Amino acid sequence: MANWTQVSRRSFLHAAFPMVGLMPTAFAHPGNAIRSSPREDRAKPEDVRPCSGGTNCLNVGTYTATITDIVASDTPTWRLARLIMRFTNRSDDRIFLAYRARSCFLIDNFGNRFFYSKNGDWEQDMSAVGIGTDVGNKIDPQFMLKPKESGVASFDLWRQRPPNEKALSYEFSVMIDEIDPSDLKTVLWRPLLQFHKVPAKLSQPLTGESVLLERPAQ
């Protein structure tokens, strides 16, 4: 069983994408220009740290990101893990967030890897629901939070079955853009959020969030 006591960004990505060609372009090619913000309260990389409440929450400076529930389901050949996340604006200004396409990845305590695509098409990322996506040079800034406001999004990740063992905990990694409110085409910064040893069964999932985030029929 992997030891997740301390996992650096480099070692996590190596574990996630050991085969040449599997590393998402979000890690290899940052894409949109990232510039300094004139706002003095903008978060810095060292501001990304665990919340006091547990392993399922990160304090990102201007906002917190909390995994509130993990819903697992099976098909004959695939296992889906849906992560429900709550983002809370801690600042006194509006913030705009977006998911950096092809950046989410999940590993369970058995070392099974879950990906944003279940068909091997690494260019297509349909994992995010409820939050806009930053892909290439196109940013969807629909996810806006007013001061002290919270919003919910989810991420669907897949792995093949078997193996069929039920996970006890997960490691989850995702990049979230913070977008300049005065220029919605500019990314202020793009931290890599890493959640370690998140229990598969969280003690207090937020009632109704899984229902709110049902994917629309195709």
Mean pLDDT: 79
How many β-strands, per DSSP? Answer: 15
* Strand portion: 35-45%
What is the level 1 CATH name?
Answer: Mainly Beta
CATH fold category name: Immunoglobulin-like
Biggest sheet statistics? 9 strands, mixed
Question: N- to C-terminal separation?
Answer: 38 Å
Write down the secondary-structure element order.
Answer: HHEEEEEEEEEEEEEEEH
Helix content: under 10%
Identify low-pLDDT runs.
1-31, 36-41, 205-218
How many DSSP helices?
A: 3
Please identify which CATH superfamily we are dealing with.
Answer: ApaG domain
Output the radius of gyration. 17 Å
Q: What structural class do helix, strand and pairing data support?
A: mainly beta
Number of domain units:
1
Q: If classified by CATH, what would the architecture be?
A: Sandwich
Structural notes for this entry:
This protein has 218 residues and is mainly beta. The chain has one domain (46-203): ApaG domain (Immunoglobulin-like), CATH 2.60.40. It is 7% helix and 41% strand. The chain has 3 helices and 15 strands. The chain has helices at residues 9-16, 25-28, 209-212; strands at 49-50, 57-59, 63-74, 78-89, 95-100, 105-108, 113-114, 128-129, 133-135, 138-139, 143-145, 150-160, 169-180, 183-189, 192-199. The strands form 2 sheets. Strands 5, 6, 7, 9, 10, 11, 13, 14 and 15 form a 9-stranded mixed β-sheet that branches. A 6-stranded antiparallel β-sheet has the order 1-2-3-4-12-8, with no helix packed on it. The model is unreliable at 1-31, 36-41 and 205-218 (pLDDT under 50).
